[in-house]
Amino acid sequence: MSHHSLRRSSTTDSLAGHTPDRLSRILPLDTSYRSSQVFSWIHRGAASFDEMTNIPKTLRTTLAGTGIPMYSSRVTGTQADPQDGSVKFSLELSDGAVIESVLLSDGKGRKTACLSSQAGCAMGCTFCRTAAMGLKRSLSPSEIAEQFMHIRKMAADTSHIVFMGMGEPLANLESVKQAVEVFHHPESYAMSHRRMTISTCGIPSGIRSLAREGPPVRLALSLITAREPLRESLMPAAGKFPLKEIKEALADHQARHRQRITLEYVLLKGINDTPEDIKALARFASGLQVLVNLIPWNPAAELPFTEPAKNDTAAFAKRIMNAGLNCVTRYGKGRGINGACGQLAAQSAR
Ligand code: SAH
């Protein structure tokens, strides 16, 4: 059995976030049937092996005896937005790092989990609060999968996932891919890939990896503006990648997965709301099938930007549509609790 403890220290932080196949290499489970059972219990949020009543008692005792924790995070607080019913979760990780996840509910009762892929972020986007934290570290597959497990415990009908919380998912792609595999698995949530969206500031190699190897989740690009010098000044790290290269990667993704790509456009008053921005956007989008998601900037007191007025946002949306593009405006959910896009910024406990 010694190989089990070896594996534990090198690759396993907790049991959540591992597919049945991987679980059978971490735990003394000798059939895929048993591995699936344990996997299913863990992702339903079982508190201990003792709750796994369809597993023989002796095996339950053996599993508990390995000492490998089932989870590596705990919910230290939840905060509900009285306006729109969104709930922000604060999670503490085993090393004391703190991350946030958000349960978003839209008017039609659809529930979406907004997950973090990193504690903090290294991309430095000037309009985003998470950037100010810097990057603490990337999250393990367990830490990503557990965020969804916690949310599902509160709202079992959460049907969609977006990687739009803290961090840049394509800077932690292997862990994100593994978490997606867990979410998709029939013994956990059987979530269709089309109900999961990875949002990226635009890392071409990561987009190409998703295009070629999958999984075929939906893709959203935080474009912000297609005026390249402006984009680089607003997004110092992401702006380093030429838009031409980003567009080629998106085209590759679209050719293989045949899905409409979302372009997220955070509207910053007086900055990316000019006629030149419309022209550049139309040029960038030509040849791609896109939906522009217009997001009026969610304010953060310490950041030097101004929220656009409602009618200015509406006027800009109209200009986008007049340029021949599909556009929907997304008013920040969870703003009342600093849980909207770009407002997540937890203080570390230690
Ligand atoms: N790093 C990824 C995912 C996290 S950000 C990405 O860049 O896409 C999720 C979305 O929130 C992005 O589209 C980002 O541009 C947007 N965003 C960041 N700060 C914001 C703010 N203050 N108001 C509105 N949207 C914001």
Topology of this protein?
Elements: H1 2-11, H2 20-26, H3 32-43, H4 57-65, E1 73-80, E2 87-93, E3 98-105, E4 111-114, E5 118-120, E6 135-138, H5 141-154, E7 158-163, H6 173-184, E8 196-200, H7 204-213, E9 218-222, H8 228-234, H9 243-257, E10 261-267, H10 275-285, E11 290-296, H11 310-322, E12 326-329
Parallel strand pairs: 4-7, 7-8, 8-9, 9-10, 10-11, 11-12
Antiparallel strand pairs: 1-2, 2-3, 3-4, 5-6
Helix pairs in contact: 2-3, 5-6, 7-9
The structure holds S-adenosyl-L-homocysteine (SAH).
Provide keyphrases for this structure.
binds S-adenosyl-L-homocysteine; 350 residues; 2 domains; TIM Barrel; two-stranded antiparallel sheet; DNA polymerase, domain 1; alpha/beta
N-to-C SSE string, H for helix and E for strand? HHHHEEEEEEHEHEHEHHEHEHE
CATH architectural grouping of the largest domain: Alpha-Beta Barrel
What's the pLDDT, averaged over the residues?
A: 93
Please compute the radius of gyration using only Cα atoms. 21 Å
Can you put this structure into words, describing what you see?
This protein is of the alpha/beta class and 350 residues long. The chain folds into two domains: 1-72, DNA polymerase, domain 1, CATH 1.10.150; 74-337, TIM Barrel. Helix content is 34%, strand content 19%. It is built from eleven helices and twelve strands. The chain has a ten-stranded mixed beta sheet, with helices on one face. Helix 2 (20-26) packs across helix 3 (32-43), helix 5 (141-154) packs across helix 6 and helix 7 (204-213) packs parallel to helix 9 (243-257). The model is unreliable at 1-11 (pLDDT under 50). The structure holds S-adenosyl-L-homocysteine (SAH). S-adenosyl-L-homocysteine (SAH) is lined by residues 127-128, 164, 168, 199-201, 222, 224, 264, 266, 295, 297-298, 300, 341-342.
